[in-house]
Amino acid sequence: MTEIVETVTGASTEALRAVRDQASADLVELRLDGVASVDVAGALEGRRTPVIVTCRPTWEGGRFDGSEDERFRILNDAIRHGAEYVDVEWKADRKGLVPLGRTALVLSTHDFDGLPADLDDRIRAMRREPAAIVKVAVMPARLADCLTLRRAMQAPPGRQIAIAMGPRGQITRLCPWLFESAWTYGGTAAPGQVAARDLADLYRVRTGTTKTTIYGITGNPLGHSASPAMHNPGLAAAGLDAIYVPFETDDADDFLTVAEALGVAGASVTAPHKPAIFKRTATTDALSRRVGALNTLRRTSSGWEGRNFDAAGFLAPLDRRGVALSGIRAVVLGAGGAARTTAWALHDRGARVELTARRAERAAALATELGVETTAWPPAPGWDLLVNTTPVGTWPEVDASPIEAGRVRGRLIYDLIYNPRETRLLREARAAGSKTIDGLEMLVSQACLQFEWWTGIPAPRDAFMDAADSFVRHRQRQTS
After folding, report:
1. pLDDT (tens digit, 9 = 90+) per residue, 272-295?
2. Which of 211, 274, 279, 435 is catalytic?
């Protein structure tokens, strides 16, 4: 079982103890380099969980700017008071360290600028030291740097921690078993760290093994994505030994290289990779070929297979309500990628589609390409269906609306924004007597379609919806 270490610190010893005692991880890393006038004995007293004592100097990315004599006094106090582990830098002069006794040594190296040129030699030298754990943390420039780290740590073997920091290193934290790491770190003390509770409950890292199936999402940026928050509870609700992780990168080929090496079974594809990955996929569906982009990958014995579930995800909430689209007047606000998919789907179902955007020339060009009509901005009332594909009204600009309230008159309004679920546009539509659909329904529908294509079993839709709704509410609380 992979253990979870929660990294905590505080301005004072009392503050440190308070967060230490709230931790729910298997081990707690006490970062003493940020604690003023630290009382080491007090920091350790009454602990209920094994601890790793760390006092990271500024020259290794930490906050301790005192002398090495003072720093080793702190570390030696931790050893004398029976700390389970102390973390000491490989570059440090460790001659001042007292005999470890019952305390185990974590010998660490950190490079915040990239992969060190001497990575292999450094790891070999560290393994020759009498350390219980060899910990190597680097800052990857690409996802593929995680593979370089993995190869470097594989030989010779030994108890170890391999971490690629930042958003491009998430796979090392979320799937530590792939890197033969004894534990993974959670918290907010280092770039790319995930909350310890999310490691345990959302990603279920304690139960992951080399047999765990890996799914994920690729694009850039991914910090806003609700997909991990939806798919992981969905996989858990279905009883599957699987995990869904972010693969943030600027380069589609970078993702495909890592996905091949790690055996990723399927992936959601988001901006900016949809067109690039489409060109590199052996088998695609009709919609992907029509729009030149896909949003889902699945591994097969003959290579990657691609699908575009954007249109099906958009249509699913309409179908659930029994909305007949043939012959209706459907107005689409916007002229971007979401407008393209929306207009195509509606036109394919027989709707009389009208595109409108503030930039009339973009709407006209897209309408000509799709074989639909354009209408003036803002559109005249009297439509059967109005779809907002613009970002206007997205959190935190919740008081904005793409059109004035007086023009919100029609049978049904569908806003693709999901944060917040009820936009100003939807509030005003409901007040005017219109029926409404929010963007979270589309997001969940897409995720469920992906899940079913990957796994071959029905998606636990309620689990997806509950998780997505919780994610949106949590993000709103974070930014309030």
Report:
1. 999 899 999 989 998 888 878 899
2. 274
